[in-house]
Amino acid sequence: MPIDIPVMQVNQAVVLTVAELTQLNIDAQDIDSYAADMTKVLAMVAQMQSVDTTGIEPMSNPQDAVQRLRADAVTETNQRDVFQQLAPETDAGFYLVPRVVE
Amino acid sequence: MTELHRKTVRQLLTDLDNKVFSSVELTRHYLDRIERLDPSLNSYITVLGASALAQAAAMDEARRKGNQPLLAGIPIAHKDIICTQGTKTTAGSRMLDNFIAPYSATLAERLDAAGVVTLGKTNMDEFAMGSSNENSYYGAVHNPWHTDHVPGGSSGGAAASMAAGLCAAATGTDTGGSIRQPAAFCGITGLKPTYGRVSRWGVIAYASSLDQAGPMARTAEDAALLLQAMAGFDARDATSIDQPVPDYMAQINRPVKGLKIGLCQEYFDPGLDPDIKAAVLDAAKTLESRGAIIKDISLPNSQHGIPAYYIIAPAECSANLSRYDGVRFGYRCADPQSIEDLYKRSRSEGLGREVKSRIMVGAFALSSGYYEAYYRKAQQIRRLISQDFANAFTQVDYILGPTTPSPAFKLGEKAGDQVAMYLQDIYTIAVNLAGLPAISVPAGFTKGLPIGMQLIGRHLDEGGLLNVAHQYQLVTDWHNRSPNFGNQQDS
Hints:
The complex is a heterodimer.
Chain A: H1 12-21, H2 31-45, H3 80-84, E1 90-91, E2 94-95
Helix pairs in contact in A: 1-2
Chain B: H1 9-17, H2 23-37, E1 44-47, H3 49-65, E2 75-79, H4 106-113, E3 117-122, H5 156-163, E4 169-173, H6 180-186, E5 189-192, E6 213-217, H7 220-230, H8 248-251, E7 260-264, H9 274-289, E8 293-297, H10 305-320, H11 339-350, H12 353-366, H13 372-392, E9 398-402, H14 418-422, H15 429-434, E10 438-446, E11 449-456, H16 462-474
Parallel strand pairs in B: 2-3, 2-4, 7-8, 7-9
Antiparallel strand pairs in B: 1-3, 4-6, 5-6, 5-10, 9-11, 10-11
């Protein structure tokens, strides 16, 4: 049964909710322009709803490949020092962030 | 005599073997051209002068000893989404402006083992999201055929540097057309291999079920040489295909006689530029004159490719790009007041507008209440599109069509219209959804701008695509044309 949904009008509340989900700050003066962009994209993709996909299995991998398993063995060496050189702030092997618990 | 920077990889290898010039001389020639000419193209983000000359000297030495690998001493450029150890790797984003890759991508390691000289890292749309190379933190790239036009994207720097003679070959990545569309816009040959043929390990992720790296070169023969080095199973990529890599150079010399080539009727729609249509039909005649059999075919769901892609790719990108949080690597905002402030300001300041827009569309499409209508529906359409191709490949061996609906457009022309930009990918996107290999080959010109034709093949038939493209290039010379760009500055 095809799902019938009207073209979604993205309003400011939707933009702010999605911005929260994606941990983005959207400046107040940009909210309307993000809403307009999202509305246009969702209008463009709305034509999908005209396609009858009853009984069609969703495809997530183009070869329908399944996850390859490997032996439960250590294959990587610890390179913490190398990787932490890329970090904005570290101390004694830890990544530093602003205080989380007061 | 062909100028050094117009020679194919194949010709350069012969000249290097015959000691006509050394790799150090060749590398200096390219580095000099980049220094003089790239300021007006902006095709490179990083140029690696010293390490390139050291690699070239090592390959000259290997050649003296007679133990040179396949591509010894050939100067190439990597798209800046491909990690190269010890080198800044930005993906065109402010987020990674300070990121020095701690390891190399498998494909870069393999090309290094094949003896290439890495001239630098090429400009691109941020995180490969774009079709014009205007979405780069490092500024737009200019098309060397007409510098007020875009080079295409997202591998726009790679295509522009190839066309301008600023590298002998290049790597690119293609999630929805990002190798083929810029190849078409810049008059070069670009191959998107089968999903899983070239390892994605160390290639910064955009949409993981669609991303695939491949070669960009002057000719199909050069693309075959590069793919030979890049392709093959890699245990570090969970979706790598564990199949042997054939000898592409042997495959490209087969005749095309008897091959069945399909013309997809849906691709010749009213939105297609008439000159591009004429060029593709002309190419079909050329192949027919070589003995190929041309047949009409139909891909009835092809019009739904763009909608399905612009749900699936943003959905995957919203998950992949959640790793950029300002904690472990990449951009961190100044003076964060709380953990939430750290995440939000680092992401908001570090990512560009188009990237943020796609993350938000993707997160929306995956969110509770909308998943079924958007993401699941798009995945079902993905299967229908894939089945269309499978049906077509019971009737024909290859599908021929245009790579793009129009030639390169002007810088800024579509910048204000996101959806118009998305429609650029109308002929390339379905190939990524189905995971198939496809190649864009120069097939003519319109108003001084190159035209690309696209050949699509069955899974893992890169050799066959390179074969048809090579046989076409043996009897045409579109791929030998080069822009006037830089000539006036040449000594």
